[in-house]
Amino acid sequence: MLFDLPDHPTLYQALMDRDPSYEGRAWVCVATTGIFCRFVCPARKPKSENCTFRDTIAGCIEAGFRPCKRCKPLDAAAGRDPIVTDLLAALDADPGHRWSEGDVTARGYDSSTVRRAFKRQFGITFLEMARQRRLREGFEVLAGGGRVIDAQVEASFESPAAFRAAVARLLGVTPAALRGGGMLQATWIPTPLGDMIAVACPTHLHLLEFTGRKALAAELKELQASVSGGIGIGETEPAAQARAELDAFFDGRQAQFATPLAYHGSAFSREVWEALRAIPAGETRSYSEIAREIGRPDAVRAVARANGANRIALMVPCHRVIGADGRLTGYGGGLWRKQRLIEIEAAYRSTAPA
Description:
Elements: H1 8-16, E1 27-30, E2 35-37, E3 51-54, H2 57-62, E4 66-67, H3 73-78, H4 82-93, H5 101-106, H6 111-122, H7 126-143, H8 148-154, H9 160-171, E5 184-189, E6 196-200, E7 205-210, H10 216-226, E8 231-233, H11 237-250, H12 267-277, E9 285-286, H13 287-293, H14 300-308, E10 321-322, H15 335-346
Parallel strand pairs: 2-4, 5-8, 9-10
Antiparallel strand pairs: 1-2, 1-3, 5-6, 6-7
Helix pairs in contact: 7-8, 12-14, 13-14
């Protein structure tokens, strides 16, 4: 961190006051719009429960948020650095261009100087920023059922190998591992907290995970081994329903999920997952409380293992389980996401039924 961020109420009040002292030190990420802004942004201010605050632009981008078009946080961070300003303008003019260090030097800039300038301003390099924009274009093609080669072309990757490697770094598997013709189909779902991958058959959702989850590769391999024909790329009806329900959840419209789910686990694990789904939005439980609720008060560790083995994030709300002392415990999607989900669901506390 560049400096210690104050608590949420202090930051939110500074946002409401459009406090200029936070310029270059903190940014607000808005769950309902999926954008991040400067504190001085002239746009209408969001509700507190829809805000998270980060101390770097890189953190905002990595969490899946886009820069606001009104306050232009990237431009503001660039300040008076003509190199950064010029390259950002070039990137906006042609986001699909395959930028290389040669392109940077061709514009008269030293590549190491550019690298340091972007790392200083944004926490990521210019080439990383450009690559991330292109990779998102490829994901959109894959999510729409397009071929891997079409996704590679749309994302402007110079070769199939480069695109495969980029996808593998993010998902843990190559696009070829998600081959067509299988009973299960995988699609990408963007959310304000980052991209998710959904795997579903024609009738049920089998997996829903944030793409950064470390266990995702192993989970996909297990799913591939469990069905004939492997996993294809496309969107089934349950995945489309999941997409719509996630949109409603992050928009603050509803916290209930009716997408039919397919569990892959023991009878005990399924019992734990059903207990998780019974926790009302806006409330939390400890592992010991879950164990007592299912009539197994001595099975606290087994409950924790079942919680960690959950493959259907948000809809089986393992993020609602915290430590007995009230502290956040491990979460495969990242503790910052767990904290944010709990904050989002606080708005549902008085309205969401079990």
